[in-house]
Write a structure and sequence with these properties.
The chain is an all-alpha fold. The protein has a single domain, classed as TorD-like (Orthogonal Bundle). The chain has 10 helices and no strands. It starts with 10 loop residues before the first helix and ends in a 12-residue tail after the last helix. It comes from Paraferrimonas haliotis.
Length: 208
């Protein structure tokens, strides 16, 4: 069962969620990390009241029964390649009319992150509108900055206008129950935050 929670936005719980989703999306999660999530019953205790126990149980079951090699292959197909990703993790691939990385929306996000001191020391250069890095940015804003207003701006202006498309595509094209259910949970979490925080993201024309 989920924890007893109200619909009120809880920054500490949202930060914890951002940390988990960063680890699940930014790089292929290790077998050890997935085992930790399974043993801790993380998904059965996901602190979003609007998400049904049945949906959470589906993901927890998918995790417990997952074949790690198949999950890893699915992650490559969805988010990395080789070849064309089925669910590109970069925002400007969706918002740029030529599907380019580092487009105008990427630059706007980079300016926002710089203004909020949310800079990351990455091992190699990477567009900052990767969904995993956006969750890392959310974690930073809610923990180090303790700035809910900046977190709201991150979602409303720089993630929600296109992020849903990533998870729609991941749900559609995933070959494993775990990746499919994770995409559904991620979208449901963003939907809940949108409602709790009263967000009204701009509706952009998306090119994928």
């Amino acid at each position: 069962m989920k924890n007893d929670m109200t619909d009120t936005f809880n920054p500490a719980e949202a930060a914890a969620i951002c940390g988990i989703l960063h680890n699940l999306y930014f790089r292929i999660p290790s077998q050890e990390y997935l085992n930790e999530l399974q043993q801790a019953q993380v998904f059965n205790n996901w602190p979003i009241e609007a998400i049904s126990d049945e949906q959470l149980a589906e993901l927890q079951s998918a995790l417990e029964n997952a074949d790690y090699e198949l999950v890893k292959r699915d992650y490559y197909d969805l988010h990395i390649g080789p070849g064309e990703c089925k669910a590109f993790p970069y925002g400007s691939v969706y918002t740029d009319n030529e599907n380019l990385v580092c487009g105008d929306t990427t630059i706007a996000l980079m300016d926002f992150l710089k203004a909020n001191d949310a800079q990351f020391d990455l091992p190699h250069k990477e567009p900052q509108d990767h969904v995993g890095l956006i969750f890392a940015s959310g974690h930073y804003l809610l923990t180090e900055r303790q700035d809910v207003e900046a977190f709201k701006a991150l979602l409303e202006q720089h993630f929600l206008p296109w992020g849903h498309r990533v998870f729609e595509l991941a749900e559609t094209h995933a070959n494993t129950d775990f990746c499919r259910e994770l995409a559904k949970l991620t979208q449901a979490t963003l939907n809940s935050w949108t409602q709790e925080l009263g967000l009204s993201p701009e509706k952009l024309h998306l090119y994928r």
